[in-house]
Amino acid sequence: RTIDGSANCTEARSLHYDACCFEIPSSPCQLCATDEYMHHTAEIEFNDDDVTCKSASNYLMERADTSSPTCSKAKATLSETCCYSTCDMCGDYDLDWDVFVDFEGVGEMSCGDFNEYFREEAVVDSSGQCKEIKEEFFDTCCY
Fold it and tell me: Which of 39, 77, 109, 133 is deepest in the core (most CB within 10 A)?
């Protein structure tokens, strides 16, 4: 057991302080924009280590201020791999949540359920899958 104030405690602090201790920033770095979602399990290289996007994001939120060079660099190098905007069915139009459609073997679902489907399946806004779904259901689901 190491007692606070002892020589062992002081030595341990001096050896491990930078790696283990940090002050949570008042304005934490957010890897993805507020209107984006994260590919949590995507593997990336961050701080010379192979980690998931979620791990890198947690590190940045705990240790980097939003205005820091560390945050800016991480966003510039990682956001394309880690962050995405989900498919936006209606764009500038409104989504009719009460209309039901038959969708891809899923069966009958409300147009409003597409939002959850897009998040769960990580359907990216600019993807071919998004475009196909919009082409099929825009006229029915959007007004």
Answer: 133
Task: Determine the average pLDDT of the residues in 25-38.
Answer: 93
Q: State the CB neighbour count (10 A cutoff) for residue 84.
A: 20
8 Å CB contact between 115 and 65: no
Cα atoms found within 13 Å of the Cα of residue 36, Cβ hemisphere only: 15
Q: Over 80: is that where the pLDDT of 64 sits?
A: yes
- Please state, as a whole number, how many other Cβ atoms lie within 10 Å of the Cβ of residue 126: 9
- pLDDT band with cut points at 50, 70 and 90 for residue 6: confident
Dist. CA 87–CA 131, nearest whole Å: 8
Q: In whole angstroms, what is the distance from residue 72 CA to residue 36 CA?
A: 17
pTM as predicted: 0.69
Question: What φ, ψ does residue 96 adopt, rounded to 5°?
Answer: -90, 100
Q: Name the residue among 132, 127, 141 with its Cα closest to residue 93.
A: 141
Tell me the C-alpha distance between 143 and 132, whole Å: 18
Q: If pLDDT is split at 50, 70 and 90, which confidence band does 19 have?
A: low
